[in-house]
Amino acid sequence: MPLSTPSALADAPVLAHVVRGGVVESAHRASVAVTAPDGTVLEAWGDPHDPVFPRSSNKPMQAVAMLRAGLDLPPEHLALACASHSAEPFHLDGVRAMLAAVGLAESDLRNTPDLPYDEQERDAWVAAGHVARPLAQNCSGKHAAMLATCRAVGWDLATYLDPGHPLQQEMADTLADLAGEPVAATAVDGCGAPVMALSLAGVARAFARIATADADTPQGRVAAAMRAHPELVGGTRRDVTALMRGTPGVVAKDGAESVYAVGLPDGRGVALKVVDGAARARPVVLAAVLRRLGVASEAYGRLEDAPVLGHGEPVGSVVAVGIEDGPA
User: Is pTM beyond 0.90 here?
Assistant: First the structure.
């Protein structure tokens, strides 16, 4: 059966307006879960227990699973394992180095060939005569890390994307452990790897546990790597990078179909999904939630920079609504 029925999606509140010339042109519904340090739901807009596919917001949890299985990576490569990178040169060099360290190459990657995620990098890539390749796809760091894990443990390399592979079973177990709930469903992600469903409350709880973990644990190592190398987790022009760089102690990861997850150093967690998958509303809604929670950040200007254009010029913006006063 579907994870979310049409009625459940329709019941999510409107949390963002698209305003053009002072007129609300469109609206985005979203669900948000905020968890307390003890893991309970502190606040919620929409149903915090409705399972969703967190997509790439699962990556830090998957990186924890790989460390638990026996992988050992330097911090910069561990950050790439958590990344949906922009395919800037330093991202691609890092993925190549991660593969070379275990005697592998780009040809061993099984993720979907793609062009760079970042628009400027994509234009430069195409202008240089390149075509879609696994290396350029934004999940190549995670796939390189999955291959490195298989090499370290002695698992089969060719079948690492199979949901029954020991690596994927370890990931399912780790996601369930960190989220405090079982994986609700498994499907195929855009990169070809299994994607596992959790509730927004579970995702928020997991990110809080990563953000507050002891430094010598797998969770703590992942948090430290992401904080030390936010540019590797996203990219030079990415809001997730700006968020981690501008908010002390935070661990954050964006995901496809407009998912965002944040772990705060005080033990609170936040996870959200914009129902229609519109990425333009995602950072704006997140910024409003973080402001409501009293989080100080230098990144709000970047997160809230969502202009609506007319003839190439700003004529409006995407704005958050219904969050400042708390859930209805």
Answer: yes
